[in-house]
Recover the amino acids of this structure.
């Protein structure tokens, strides 16, 4: 089983460039999430989608946009990348909307902005 | 607002020794509590969770955690650590209708 798949795994951008991180899950989960992980700060929620057709801001949404393309896919877009967005990004999914249950994580996308 | 504190950034234990990782949370209601583990270069994997009931919960890989409401703590324990347990461990707290908040993590090193 693939679980949660993220692409790309690594990316280097220049300041001002744009890019989209892709995420797909094959577990028929309703909820999907995008987190960023920075040293000493744990995981911080960027955006989430409780169900298909809905998206909401998390703790650190500035500089990002998301699209819940369908039940399987949830993409994260950086319109104009900044060095402060250098981070490791994780997509996650959960089958129990409203209940902060078990999250299933992808392997992460390491982004460097020069 | 909910928050999670993991007081120890790094912990080093000898293989075979016991382990306790600390987690304190700030929350108004009855929390949902979790421990996740992250091996290098990997995503996070759920070790165990507490929703209600017995305050001592068992997880995978021989880990357990105890919920102590009076101390607002949810410490993770393992009686005998193996070298493969070296990883980063995250405590997280949430509530119904809300999202998980993660602690900053504790890096566990195991020395042989």
């Amino acid at each position: 089983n693939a679980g949660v798949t993220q692409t790309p795994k690594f990316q280097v951008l220049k300041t001002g460039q744009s890019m989209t991180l892709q995420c797909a899950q094959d577990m028929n989960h309703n909820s999907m999430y995008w987190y960023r992980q920075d040293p000493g700060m744990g995981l911080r929620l960027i955006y989430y989608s409780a169900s298909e057709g809905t998206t909401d801001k998390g703790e650190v949404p500035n500089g990002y946009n998301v699209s819940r393309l369908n039940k399987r896919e949830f993409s994260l877009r950086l319109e104009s990348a900044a060095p402060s967005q250098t981070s490791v990004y994780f997509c996650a999914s959960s089958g129990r909307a409203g209940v902060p249950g078990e999250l299933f994580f992808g392997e992460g996308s390491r982004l460097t902005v020069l | 607002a909910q928050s999670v504190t993991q007081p120890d950034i790094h912990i080093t234990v000898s293989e075979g020794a016991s382990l306790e990782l600390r987690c304190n949370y700030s929350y108004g209601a009855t929390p949902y509590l979790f421990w996740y583990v992250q091996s290098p270069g990997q995503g996070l994997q759920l070790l165990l969770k507490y929703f209600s009931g017995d305050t001592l919960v068992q997880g995978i890989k021989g880990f357990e955690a105890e919920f102590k409401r009076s101390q607002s703590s949810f410490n993770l324990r393992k009686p005998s650590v193996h070298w493969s347990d070296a990883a980063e461990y995250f405590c997280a707290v949430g509530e119904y209708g809300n999202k998980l908040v993660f602690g900053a993590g504790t890096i566990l090193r195991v020395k042989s």
About this structure: The interface with chain A takes residues 4, 9, 32, 34, 36, 41-46, 49, 90, 94-100, 102-105 of chain B (CB under 8 Å).
